[in-house]
Write a structure and sequence with these properties.
By secondary structure, the chain is α/β, with parallel strands linked by helices. 51% of the residues lie in helices and 15% in strands. Strands 1-2-3-4-6-9 form a six-stranded mixed sheet, with helices on both faces. It has a three-stranded mixed sheet with strand order 5-7-8. Strand 1 and strand 2 form a beta hairpin.
């Protein structure tokens, strides 16, 4: 497979998949999402791969969705976009190999949500997290509405989603959002160390455990994802979204009207 927005490295038993659009802080355009899905499908089929690390080139893990591409979507196109992205969500959950998110820099919007889908998360001490959807008049997607409250509780999840405030890596660690805080610029080393520990365990045991743990989640999640697609499609058509995007690119505070 020829990748334009994904970079891959292989170690013994480990595949590292990098988001590779550093010039736009690894914004998750549709092409990148589809390449990531294809890369995960290839890793799933490769018996030599026992563990996957998802990381990113450049200074950010992912700044979230590509706002320039979203600005002119119709409600139907917005719903279809989310439905396509949900194939990636379900692949991460269904893939019977452990996936580690190694977060360098910003994990914002869909980038934050993507991290939540992974089985383990390690973050550089200088990384930060923000559920930035509300700042541009959208709802959280990539199933964050399900996973964030599940991990940190409804009240704290509402605070992050309703206010869109930035959270440090240390705060994320204290809330249990990440498994390890990596210091001294050793993110890749720490991620590989965890991956090597997982590779040494029974792949069948890990795969079956992940499948069973996610079984009940997946039943509820399919209904939620359809509602997410419909709601986000409506938000794409709102005046608030247009104002939020314009304010973002103009580097000013948005003036939302609830329309």
């Amino acid at each position: 497979m020829s990748n334009q927005f994904i970079d891959i490295e292989n170690y013994e038993g480990i595949r590292v998949i990098y988001l590779n659009r550093p010039d736009v802080r690894n914004a998750l355009g549709m092409e990148m999402r589809m390449e990531l899905l294809e890369s995960l499908e290839e890793a799933e089929k490769d018996d030599e791969v026992k563990c996957i690390i998802l990381s990113a080139r450049g200074k950010a893990f992912s700044a979230g969705g590509d706002l320039k591409a979203l600005h002119s979507l119709s409600a139907i196109e917005g719903r279809q976009r989310l439905q396509t992205s949900h194939k990636l969500v379900m692949k991460i959950l269904d893939l019977e190999k452990p996936i580690i998110a190694a977060v360098n820099g910003a994990a914002a919007g869909a980038g934050f949500s993507l991290m939540l889908l992974c089985d383990f998360s390690i973050a550089d001490e200088n990384a930060f997290f923000v559920q930035s959807f509300v700042n541009v008049g959208l709802i959280p997607d990539f199933a964050a509405i399900h996973f964030l409250p599940l991990i940190i509780g409804h009240q704290k999840a509402k605070e992050l989603m309703f206010l869109g405030d930035r959270m440090t890596a240390e705060e994320a660690y204290s809330l249990g959002l990440i498994n390890k805080l990596s210091t001294g610029g050793n993110l890749q080393r720490d991620a590989l160390a965890l991956a090597n520990r997982l590779v040494a365990k029974s792949p069948l045991s890990i795969g079956m455990t992940k499948k069973l743990m996610n079984q009940n989640i997946n039943v509820q999640l399919k209904a939620l994802l359809e509602m997410e697609a419909q709601a986000q499609g409506i938000c794409f058509q709102s005046e608030d979204f247009k104002e939020g995007v314009d304010a973002f690119f103009s580097k000013r505070e948005a003036e939302f009207q609830g329309k």
